[in-house]
Structures are given as structure tokens and as C-alpha cells.
Amino acid sequence: MTESAPKPVREIRINPIVPSESVLVATARGLRPKKAEAPAPRDTRAHVETCPFCTGNEHMTPPVIASYPAENNWEIRIVENLYPVLGDDIRNPNLTFGLQQTIDGYGRHEVMIDHNRHGIAIHEMSEPHLALLFGAYRDRMQQLYRSNSRLRYVLVFKNFGPAAGASIAHTHSQVIATPVIPDNVQAEVTNSRAFWHKNHHCIFCSLIDEALTFEATIYDRESGDIRRKINVGQYVVERGAKFIAIKPFASRYEWEVHILPLQHQSDFLRVSKDDLDDLARVMRRTMARLDAVLGGAQYNYFLHSLPHDIQCEDCEASYHWHLEITPRTSIPTGFELGSGLFVNTVAPETAAEKLRTVVLD
Ligand SMILES: [Zn+2]
Ligand SMILES: [Zn+2]
Ligand SMILES: [Zn+2]
């Protein structure tokens, strides 16, 4: 059995943390059921006269909430969202009838202008700037959690490119604070807690351990041929002193990468200055790898951290915060939307290798 040309993969891979988020990995050419999402041309201009997020147009945005390092020479600026999907004004809370259960759309929706340069990409930002940006995420999450006990979750995310839902070209992230814990976060919290009860070990730490220390060969029972080979570091895309970027074995998106702290940490609010410096480095290098392989990818990223006020003592030990980066290279099909089973047409092993072997300066 040779190891050269990889055999096409066609298998359903079970997400070890959230089994309902499993994926069909189908890599044979003829099997590809998906339509590719073309990379969008990127607006690389440094300054745009009419852009409300550009320097000099501060009067065009809703009121400012915070600026870094200062309002008069800002590099990062947090403002209220002009079209918030959730608001903290008083609404009628009594809207439930029969099976039509509702929760008041209470919350906060804010925009974080990531950089004063209009068209700069994440991998083009300096590492000190990225450390400042992730520090700003942390500070704002902290402030929102403290501001009102009705807020159960603060989600920080970024949409980049029209296919990823970005409506303004100027680089920005968003912060949404909600009165409910999102289902996918709740599923991660519940399932990782169940794993911890059974194994007294964090499942995310186990995944990191497997990526760094695991080697295995699975043979065919009848013929003795090699069915699968798992090599040390096969799923590792980037590694820093404190953070690791991993290509999940059961990735729903072709180029999905997760960044996790190497040492167990449940809550993103605990990241230190040293953590932020290393996170910035791992983030910049991971995004540069994605850019080199995909050429101007449209993507989302979002932070999953332990929800506050969930009355769960074990969750400090069982949950592990992480950043999920999901490039949008294909449009979901009816099969995917109807079944909830995502189709990934690039074997995660192949994707990880391509990303890892990019030569960075
Ligand atoms: Zn701009
Ligand atoms: Zn852990
Ligand atoms: Zn997650």
C-alpha cells in the first residue's frame, strides 16, 4: 500500500464535542455537490472619503463607546450599531402565546472598527495592533457582562467579505450581547461537561494533546492494508508559545481553523497581556496562511468563551475558550440546509498540510 496519492474520502465524521454538528467529508471530484463562492475583490484603499468608519468621518457614526489608544488618535473605535438587531430600550415583554414562545429582543449590538486603515486585512495588521484588538474584545465583553445581569452571552465576531455577511467594506468586528446563550455554545458547554464528568479531563485539552502527541495507523481487518494513518502534528496549522491553530478532523467548512490556548483556560476574559501577544502572532500567521492558500478569502470568525452566570462549577474545568475561523468558499446547498449535515469537499488532512506548508516571512 503506497501513501502517495491520497484516496478520495467519503465518510461522515462525528464532531467529538457537538455530534449534531457532524460533517460529510466527500472529496472525489465527481461527488462535489457544491458551488464555489468566488473570492470577492478586496477594497484595499487606505482611506475612503465617504466611508463612515474612516478617520475624519467620526461624526458620521453613531455615538462612540470607546477608542484605543485614545479618541483623538484612535486605531480601534467601538460605536453603537446604526441598525442594531437587538436593543436595550424597553419593549413589551408579554408576547408569548401558545406555541409562539418569544423572548424580548433585549441586548446590545455594537460595531468595533478594527483599524483606522479602510481596507487592511487581518494578516496585514501588526502584531501589537492585533493584541490591542483582542484586548479591546476582552474589555468590552467584560464591561457588557458587568453592565446588566440580564445579558447571558456576549458574542464577538467578524464578517469579512459580502459572502460572509459584511455590509460595510471598512474592516470591522461586531459585539452582540444577548439574553440567551446561543444553542451551539450551550451544546459545547453541556457536552464538554459530560466528557469531563466521565474522564476528568477537558475535551478541548484532549484534542490538543491528540494533535500534538498522537500517532496511529488503522489497518484493514481482512487485507491488512493501511486504512488511515494519523501522524503527529497532522492537524496543526500554527503553533505559538501559548496558542495553537488546529484544523478540526470533523470540520464543516473546507478551510475552517480553530485557535485555542495551549494551557487550559475557560474564559476569554482571563487572557493576560502575554497571552494577547502570542494570540496576535498565531492569529496573524494563521490568517496569512489562509490568505496565501485561498487568495482573499471571505470569512467569519467568532469567539466561544464560557457564558457568564450559568451556575456551573465544573465548567471552569470542562470548558475551554476558542476562536473559530470559517472561510466561506462554497454556498450551502439544499441538502445541507435541509439535513443539517454539512458537506466538506477538501479532506481536513489535505487542508491542514496546505496551510502548514505555506512559507511565511
Ligand atoms: Zn473606511
Ligand atoms: Zn482545556
Ligand atoms: Zn466553538
Automatic annotation (TrEMBL):
Active site per database record: H172
Domain Galactose-1-phosphate uridyl transferase N-terminal intervals: 10-182
- Tell me the SUPFAM superfamilies matching this sequence: HIT-like
Record GO biological process: galactose metabolic process
Q: How is the cofactor bound?
A: Binds 1 zinc ion per subunit.
- Does the keyword Cytoplasm belong to this entry? no
Q: Kindly list the cofactors needed.
A: Zn(2+)
Q: Which InterPro entries match?
A: ADP-glucose_phosphorylase, GalP_UDPtransf1, GalP_Utransf_N, HIT-like_sf
Keywords per UniProt: Carbohydrate metabolism, Metal-binding, Nucleotidyltransferase, Transferase, Zinc
List the protein's name: Galactose-1-phosphate uridylyltransferase
**A Pfam cross-reference name:** GalP_UDP_transf
Q: Name one GO molecular function term.
A: UDP-glucose:hexose-1-phosphate uridylyltransferase activity
Annotated positions binding Zn(2+): C51, C54, H118, H170
The organism is: Sulfuricaulis limicola
